[in-house]
Design a protein that fits this description.
This protein has 305 residues and is α/β, with parallel strands linked by helices. 58% of the residues lie in helices and 11% in strands. Strands 4-5-6-3-7 form a 5-stranded parallel β-sheet, with helices on both faces. The mean pLDDT is 91.
Length: 305
């Protein structure tokens, strides 16, 4: 996902630079299509070239240049219009400053990464949108404030975090999806790739993968297995499909953990519910305290706050 975003960003950036260069060239061509300007330009170039060769007539070069500039002015042109002005005043369109990517390149990359991850549609809620003051229950408010602070730090550091698997468990309206959305948005805005899927979408994608030719499966699984952050929202709401749901969830968790990538899951199920629905193999991955954290959100439905 990041590679695709980088390629798109570089293509867009190159296209803008090329367009700006062509615009300057087109203005020069338009000016030189006027006979008076063309003649004055030819004279100026000849005088300057001759002066370079023999160095004897600098005054003639100055006079020829003045005549050329006068002709340009007569028809509403200035010489500066024909010079390409870099779009970025900081890096002069080189793309880097002191060996690091310029802000212009980084901002283009982040914009393309957001598109590639479809993050604005999938994760509309940000940490800045969180307003715990509307929560009347003190315990619920304090718990969410601590959790938001913790998960904000988590988003800053991922995938270099101690716990690769995070499970947000809670009842309907407890804020799980909003928190997952905020983590996903923050991660992408920091240049990390994110695949955000509902459990139903994940299930359908794994079914499509399972029933596709073997040669296509790697490509279908690529983003799910390689994104810096995978979010599976509302685990437990999807149907259990034989040879698909549990098997591919297990594959995903194992492959991502082996690659030291982060997976965030929201669910209405508690730990016993996960064990009952997905059995020991899934539960052991999500419940392993060496690699996973299980957060429980409780309290009243925040949608009705």
């Amino acid at each position: 996902m990041k590679e695709r975003a980088i390629n798109v960003a570089m293509t867009k950036r190159r296209a803008r630079i090329d367009a700006a260069e062509r615009e300057a060239e087109n203005k020069l061509s338009a000016a030189l299509s006027i006979p008076e300007i063309s003649a004055a330009h030819t004279l100026y170039v000849d005088k300057k070239f001759n002066n370079i060769l023999n160095g004897k007539n600098p005054d003639e070069v100055t006079a020829a240049r003045d005549k050329y500039l006068s002709a340009l002015s007569k028809y509403g042109y200035s010489e500066s219009e024909f010079e390409y002005t870099p779009l970025c005043p900081v890096c002069k369109d080189r793309g880097s400053v002191n060996g690091r990517a310029c802000d212009c390149v980084w901002e283009e990359y982040i914009s393309c990464l957001k598109d590639e991850c479809n993050i604005l549609a999938k994760a509309p809620f940000t940490f800045e949108d969180c307003d715990t003051s509307v929560i009347s229950e003190e315990a619920q408010r304090a718990t969410l404030e601590r959790l938001y602070k913790h998960m904000s730090a988590y988003a800053d550091k991922l995938p270099d975090v101690n716990y690769k698997n995070i499970v947000l468990s809670g009842t309907v309206g407890s804020g799980k999806t909003c928190l997952a959305s905020a983590v996903a948005r923050a991660a992408v805005e920091r240049g990390k790739s994110c695949k955000f899927m509902s459990a139903y979408e994940f299930n359908n994608e794994m079914l499509a993968c399972h029933t596709s030719p073997i040669s296509e499966r790697s490509e279908r699984l690529h983003d799910v297995l390689t994104a810096d952050l995978l979010v599976i929202d509302d685990l437990g709401t999807e149907p259990i499909l034989k040879n698909v749901t549990i098997e591919y969830l297990l594959l995903t968790l194992e492959e991502r953990l082996n690659a030291e990538l982060c997976t965030l899951i929201t669910t209405n199920l508690d730990e016993d519910g996960i064990m009952s629905r997905y059995f020991e193999r899934i539960y052991s991955r999500l419940g392993d305290k060496r690699h996973s954290r299980f957060f429980k959100l409780s309290g009243k439905d925040l949608r009705q706050a």
